[in-house]
Write a structure and sequence with these properties.
The protein is α+β, with helices and mostly antiparallel strands. It is built from 11 helices and 9 strands. It is 42% helix and 13% strand.
């Protein structure tokens, strides 16, 4: 669903609950990705290969495996993923090894021989395959939070790592909001996902409400005042013939005029999806800019 459409679902809400998941993509590990491909009908070996292509070990978690290890892949193949279950309790196969599906590494033992923990790959931030794979991997989470939202009469949306729940009800209160947050955090914890404590918020009636960077106080999503002011500043400065684009780019610490131009055009493109008429007016002001200066 488009970002603007997601924000529109929360328009005119009285209460808004916001949560943000830390390292969302990098918290989706190989077993969960493998199960996505298996559920889509791929055979075991192909699902394994695709999982390896779409995941990586985070640099801060990399481990050379220690002495005696010939490869980081020891003990991990299709059979390993088939044994691994995605649940909050230790899998029976690993019950005596203290392994949980949400752990970042896997302890491999073969014939009673101890071996070091092996790093577990996860979805990389910025990869074109990560968003859809992550969404498929957390379908169970979405179903559980949807059930919680329905029990409280809330609208639930998740856009990657950004979770929002809202209601226009006049009987909803802060105590209920606190209960909802506790239940949502429990579901996140069950799947090894951790919310940003400092970004978890309850926005009550009368306070400014922003979802995915858009104002949702009115009937339709709107650009924030800060977003509009920044674009107005670009239009004003670049419209002043005494200020060359190169000067403006240098003052804002852009690498080049081209970088500045792409930045502004990207912001205008986003604004067009939200407030087309206003965005066109800004674009018109910038049409006379000589970007070669």
């Amino acid at each position: 669903m488009d970002l603007v459409e997601v924000a529109r679902l929360h328009c005119r809400c009285r209460w808004l609950i916001k949560l943000d998941v830390q390292n969302f993509f990098e918290s989706i590990y190989e077993p969960a990705v493998y199960r996505v491909f298996r559920d889509l009908g791929y055979p075991r070996l192909l699902a394994f290969e695709l999982t390896r292509l779409c995941t990586r070990v985070r640099p801060d978690q990399a481990d050379d495996g220690g002495p005696g290890m010939t490869s980081n892949l020891v003990g991990r193949g299709p059979a390993f993923y088939e044994r691994l279950k995605d649940n909050p309790e230790p899998d029976p196969y690993f019950r005596n090894r203290g392994f949980r599906a949400r752990d970042r590494s896997v302890e491999v033992r073969q014939w009673g021989v101890r071996r070091p923990a092996l790093p577990m790959g996860s979805l990389p931030q910025g990869s074109p395959t990560s968003p859809i794979l992550a969404n498929l991997a957390v379908r169970g989470l979405d179903e559980q939070i949807t059930a919680i939202a329905e029990a409280y009469g809330l609208t639930y949306t998740r856009y990657a790592d950004d979770i929002a729940l809202s209601t226009a009800s006049k009987t909803f209160d802060r105590d209920q909001a606190t209960e909802v947050i506790g239940k949502v955090m429990h579901e996140l914890d069950r799947r090894g996902l951790k919310p940003h404590a400092t970004k978890t918020r309850i926005i009550p009636p009368g306070a400014r409400k922003i979802v995915l960077g858009l104002m949702v106080d009115g009937v339709q999503p709107r650009l924030t005042r800060e977003y509009r002011n920044k674009l107005r500043l670009h239009a004003y400065m670049l419209g002043d013939k005494s200020v060359a684009p190169s000067q403006h780019a240098a003052s804002l610490k852009f690498r080049s005029v081209l970088s500045l131009r792409r930045h502004i055009e990207g912001k205008i493109a986003h604004a067009r999806r939200v407030e087309p008429a206003w965005a066109e007016a800004i674009a018109l002001q910038l049409k006379t800019v000589d970007w070669t200066l």
